[in-house]
Design goal:
405 residues, alpha/beta, Rossmann fold, Arc Repressor Mutant, subunit A, six-stranded parallel beta sheet, two-stranded antiparallel sheet, globular
Length: 405
């Protein structure tokens, strides 16, 4: 559908930067320099955190792929998307499989390396065990529901997997990757992927593996990951090399990013105008606090709605605003919440945030009823809360802000 705007692809794509799109990356010079500096050591652990959709995954991908292209580093072709209920055995199995594939793709001579082929055979055994149990072995992080309890098949002893990690590090160094292997762990998100106790146990288990010589670890999660490690995982806190806290790109940088994508995807030599007026981007930016993934998701849906409309070529704010609100309302309606919960959600949008006591007083309802509604809204991810002293301050989701703001 992009031919309508003389483009060969979506300039509002939500996909993170990958190995093929490095030239579309914008900004983050200080953060990149910090990562480069840390990765110049033989073994590092970098925590990258930020609000969902602000570009943590893109930053990690940009750093590791650019270093890999410069030479001296090996990094797998994909990030390791960690799933809830993972343990150390699963983590090491996935990392080993990713490194094996990356090494083999870059060094065909490894077909005659006995140690390497033995490790490769082990990853195939693991994959077969998962298939027999009805799972996909590698790269399945985060596919299960809120309350999913998954019984994974028995794999390989951790001691053996750790030995394989060491052997792969040595093999990699002999394949001109003397500066190490960069592993990108994604989805270390508290609440949305991991419950706090589960994340604490997982990272405590993995702590010693994070110190295996020749590996660099980029740990990616929502805002609060570094503080969580500092407060709850002393053993890991002591060995973190650096933390990078990402804020949303400025509006100026967002405009640069869109302009760069428009030029890159243009089908013609002349200057192509963006299909969505920047006033729409500014409106969404203010409502979502710069959450680019959400903004671009709305833009993509807007354009898909008008792609067959010959008379509509550019989307301005007057045209877009009611549609954006309707799309957000539809997303909320799909969660099928009670009338009282919907009323509370609207009140939270108006106030920006309230306690259970404040809401009960405004609604002239009992705290038990209000608490029940807030639990429903929390479960359906329409509100979030932060603890201030003894109070829980509840605030609305992005969908609610967009729909009722």
């Amino acid at each position: 559908m992009w031919e309508k705007w003389e483009l060969k692809n979506n300039p509002y794509s939500q996909n993170p930067i990958d190995e093929r799109s490095l030239n579309l990356f914008v900004g983050r010079k200080k953060e990149i320099a910090l990562c480069y500096n840390c990765l110049s050591t033989s073994n590092s652990r970098i925590v990258i955190e930020g609000g969902r959709g602000v570009g943590t995954t893109s930053l990690a991908n940009y750093v590791r792929y650019t270093l890999s292209k410069k030479g001296g580093y090996l990094t797998p072709d994909i990030e390791i998307s960690v799933g809830r209920n993972w343990n150390l055995e699963l983590l090491l199995s996935n990392v080993i499989a990713a490194v094996v594939y990356a090494l083999e793709r870059r060094n065909r001579k490894l077909t005659s390396n006995r140690k390497f082929q033995n490790i490769k055979k082990t990853t195939q055994v693991i994959e077969e065990r998962f298939k027999a149990a009805g799972f996909q072995a590698f790269g399945f992080g985060g596919q299960f529901g809120e309350s999913a309890v998954v019984s994974y098949p028995r794999l390989i002893p951790v001691v053996t997997l750790t030995q394989y990690m060491n052997e792969l590090s040595n093999i990699s160094k002999c394949s001109d990757n003397s500066k190490g292997i960069i592993i990108h762990l994604d989805n270390l998100d508290i609440k949305t992927v991991f419950e706090p106790d589960s994340l604490r146990n997982f990272l405590n288990e993995a702590r010693d593996s994070f110190q295996i010589e020749g590996y660099h670890w980029m740990l990616i999660g929502d805002t609060g990951l570094r503080g969580f490690i500092g407060s709850h995982i002393d053993r890991l806190d002591d060995i973190i090399t650096a933390e990078v806290k990402l804020k949303p790109l400025t509006l100026k940088k967002v405009q640069q990013l869109i302009d760069k994508r428009i030029r890159y995807y243009s089908l013609v030599r002349k200057k192509v105008s963006p299909p969505i007026d920047f006033e729409v981007i500014k409106y969404l930016y203010s409502l979502t606090d710069g959450r680019l993934r959400y903004i671009f998701g709305i833009c993509t849906r807007l354009l898909s709605l008008i792609s067959s409309e010959a008379l509509i070529h550019t989307v301005d704010l007057d045209f877009a605003k009611p549609i954006i609100m309707r799309l957000a309302e539809e997303r909320i309606a799909q969660r099928n919440i009670s009338p009282l919960s919907l009323r509370i959600l609207r009140m939270l949008v108006e106030s920006g945030g309230s306690t259970t006591t404040e809401l009960a007083k405004k609604l002239d309802k009992g705290q038990t009823s209000v608490s029940r509604c807030l639990r429903e809204l929390l479960t359906k991810r329409l509100v979030k809360f932060k603890k201030v002293g003894k109070e829980h301050i509840y605030s609305p989701s992005l969908d609610a802000k967009v729909a009722y703001g």
